[in-house]
Write the structure tokens for this entry.
Amino acid sequence: MINKVVKSAAESVTDIFDGATIMIGGFGEAGSPIELIHALIDHGAKNLTVVSNNTGSGHVGLAALIENKQVKKMTCSFPRTVNSTVFPELYHNGEIELELVPQGTLAERIRAGGAGIPAFFTPASVNTPLAEGKELRDFNGQTYVMEYGIRADYSLVKCKAADRYGNLIYNKTARNFGPIMCTAAEVSIVQTKSMVKLGELDPENIVTPGIFVKRVIEVNNPAEESKLVSEDRRYPW
């Protein structure tokens, strides 16, 4: 019997190892799997390479993981946003590495990794510092830069509803990078707000099929990152 449900967030991340590459979903607060990230902080794996859209806010979630000195490198599109102070300070002090990737390119690199495509060409970043040292090629009179697909050891993703097979649906824009991160990781770990019975998810509406998901944990009252930030909460509590 297929059952990908695990009992706790702590159990779901217990095998994440030092030096792992981890994709973390979220577009700012939307879709950020805070409970899984906090479980990873408690677990203590270090020297991580994290692939995400941004570097978190305040002192919770991804920002807290970075602040706890568990991340050696960030691959992201927005290393600094309104409430992000942790990463900029560490970066300027030379305590963390950054690979800056245009957002569309980041999404396509993850998608390509999940689809088994090793590399592709894009016009984004041509004639900018981000293209330095990369292969350039002309197609139909336009210059393109080669980018490599990204794969990860783990992905941490948040969804709206799941079943024990690992089939997932998302909440509008909170979907963001979740589906492609599930395809591009060796082990996809998902927190869901609602665990439903088999057959309750309309097959026509399932966004991520269970074949791409390894573990699911139910978190029916997930933390709101913006509320935690406004209250100046810090993790570990």
